[in-house]
């Protein structure tokens, strides 16, 4: 078999923590924790915080004592900053290889077809050094003949300092050794359910999964598991997706800053999410045919529990904020049970059945208003120039007491002139 | 997914020529319109590695950098003796002129006689965060 052109996966170490550390150098070496939206759960931990045994997803209120005892620096998630730093990292990566797939905010696949004759680990060390110099973000790289192996190599590079930040699984020898020590539940695409099934068969490592027969894998799981087995064996089944596939659905969901108990406030919040959903639809140049709105109480708290959800068709298909708000409010009102002491903590708007406006089926009675597109474009332009929600529908309310809590937000250092990092002179 | 860095999303381009259409004769300048001046590419050669910072303090007055100025900092530039840099001393960002000294050590020097100079090395570890490539100041 001819050697397949290899892939690399480069990913930011503790990415959100690293972003905070670029601009506040006192955080270097200190325990740093970033919380999810609404300051709920741990979503990024510095090495020092991991060493204290704080797990990913731990609710903040459960570790208040640990935070105080170890003077852990806690941040609300600052997605404006993380998104901008991610864009910068990817711009540096794009100078190395034209074949890139931005897989998530902190992970990017590179196609190394053009570099087959070069010393790949040395090139990847150079890439890491350049990303660190230009952006301040430390990274690790995994190299392999398939995307699954590149991802696995990346995880190994991160866990084991002896790799020096780059783990090359191109060669059979090193690959076999790493796969033998790699837990099967950490392999890309293996969820907890599949891992449990594999455990029942006595398969605990990536090497065990690689040695499973593809047929058995398909019988046990799905075609995805079969593909994972083949990819672990070095047969590339997943290509680089250089163009993001058109989205099939879209969601705007948020936790509230405090529990919401009245229909009025719930309506405001859902109208705000529908407004944001409309912006996202228009940014992607698509219209939606189906909308659902939901709201629910906290499963972790005492008191009456309720999950309300309704969906509705959008006829004609639309990206007009006014139509989306109307549909979302109808859903909320239909699912509302009169309060009854329920303390709602989260709501969301889900859009489905997305397509380009020109592909939308024509409708007989409800023709889309020809002025809708022009009005929405004008609103989007004003909001792009003067800041989000300069122009907003009154249905969103003005005080928005339900809004997300982000008590420990760092400045938007790289995108706002009034929040730039300060340098003493 | 890749875009050039727009540090200020609401950057205001400077119109070079009027956009009003004459009702009578077409303007003889129409074929010579040259777009708009955009200061971003002038100030920011490498968007991915360039950051803006706000200056607080008077220690670089002698270098023409005043309290309240914005400095343009490029992390991709290798610091050389004589560059104005953003250094990090005790975790704090500080704007100083970087000098390599004869004895193999280096110094971060203020350009204001009222301020001390730091000699950096084993006793005072420091990091060079980036090299200052520009200053932005509005007079009003």
From TrEMBL, chain A:
The gene is umuC. It comes from the Bacteria. Residues 7-191 form the UmuC domain. Keywords: DNA damage, DNA repair, SOS mutagenesis, SOS response. This is DNA-directed DNA polymerase. It catalyses: DNA(n) + a 2'-deoxyribonucleoside 5'-triphosphate = DNA(n+1) + diphosphate. It is an enzyme of class 2 (transferase). SUPFAM superfamilies: DNA/RNA polymerases. It comes from Craurococcus roseus. Its EC number is 2.7.7.7. It holds the Pfam family IMS_C.
């Amino acid at each position: 078999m001819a050697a397949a052109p290899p892939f690399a996966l480069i990913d930011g170490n503790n990415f959100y923590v690293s972003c905070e550390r670029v601009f506040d150098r006192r955080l270097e070496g200190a325990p740093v924790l970033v919380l999810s939206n609404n300051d709920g759960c741990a979503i990024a931990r510095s090495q020092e915080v991991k060493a204290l045994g704080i797990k990913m997803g731990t609710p903040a209120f459960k570790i208040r004592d640990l935070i105080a005892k170890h003077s852990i620096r806690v941040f609300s998630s600052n997605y404006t900053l993380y998104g901008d730093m991610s864009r910068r990292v990817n711009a540096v990566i794009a100078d190395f290889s034209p074949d890139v797939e931005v897989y998530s905010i902190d992970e990017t696949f590179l196609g190394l077809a053009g570099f087959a004759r070069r010393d790949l680990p040395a090139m990847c060390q150079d890439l890491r050094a350049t990303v660190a110099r230009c952006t301040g973000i430390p990274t690790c790289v995994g190299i392999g003949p398939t995307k699954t192996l590149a991802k696995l190599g990346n995880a190994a590079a991160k866990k084991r300092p002896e790799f020096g930040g780059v783990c090359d699984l191109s060669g059979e020898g090193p690959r076999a050794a790493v796969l033998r020590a790699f837990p099967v539940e950490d392999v890309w695409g293996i969820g907890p359910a599949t891992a449990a099934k594999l455990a029942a068969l006595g398969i605990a490592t990536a090497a065990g999964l690689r040695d499973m027969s593809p047929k058995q894998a398909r019988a046990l799981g799905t075609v995805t598991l079969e593909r994972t087995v083949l990819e672990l064996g070095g047969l590339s089944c997943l290509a680089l997706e250089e163009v993001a596939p058109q989205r099939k659905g879209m969601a705007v969901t948020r936790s509230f800053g405090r529990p919401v108990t009245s229909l009025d406030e719930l309506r405001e919040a859902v109208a705000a999410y529908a407004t944001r959903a409309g912006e996202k639809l228009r940014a992607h140049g698509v219209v939606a045919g189906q909308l659902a709105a939901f709201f629910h109480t906290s499963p972790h708290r005492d008191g009456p529990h309720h999950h309300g959800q309704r969906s509705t068709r959008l006829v004609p298909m639309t990206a007009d904020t006014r139509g989306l708000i109307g549909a979302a409010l109808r859903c909320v009102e239909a699912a509302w049970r009169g309060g009854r002491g329920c303390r709602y903590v989260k709501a969301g708007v889900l859009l489905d059945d997305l397509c380009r406006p020109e592909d939308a089926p024509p409708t007989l009675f409800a023709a889309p208003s020809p002025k809708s597109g022009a009005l929405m474009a004008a609103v989007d332009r004003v909001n792009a120039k003067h800041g989000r929600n300069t122009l907003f529908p009154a249905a969103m309310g003005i005080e928005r007491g339900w809004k997300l809590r982000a008590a420990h937000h760092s400045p938007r250092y790289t995108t706002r002139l009034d929040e730039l990092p300060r340098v003493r002179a | 997914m890749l875009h050039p860095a727009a540090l200020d999303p609401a950057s205001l381009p400077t119109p070079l020529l009027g956009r009003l259409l004459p009702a009578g004769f077409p303007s003889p300048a129409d074929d010579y319109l040259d777009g708009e001046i955009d200061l971003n590419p002038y100030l920011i050669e490498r968007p991915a590695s360039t950051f803006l910072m706000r200056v607080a303090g008077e220690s670089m007055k002698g270098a023409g950098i005043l309290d309240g100025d914005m400095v343009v900092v490029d992390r991709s530039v290798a610091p050389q003796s004589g560059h104005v840099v953003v250094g990090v001393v005790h975790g704090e960002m500080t704007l100083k002129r970087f000098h390599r000294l004869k004895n193999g050590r280096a110094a971060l020097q203020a350009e204001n006689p009222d301020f001390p100079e730091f000699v950096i090395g084993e006793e005072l570890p420091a990091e060079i965060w980036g090299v200052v490539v520009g200053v932005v100041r509005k007079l009003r």
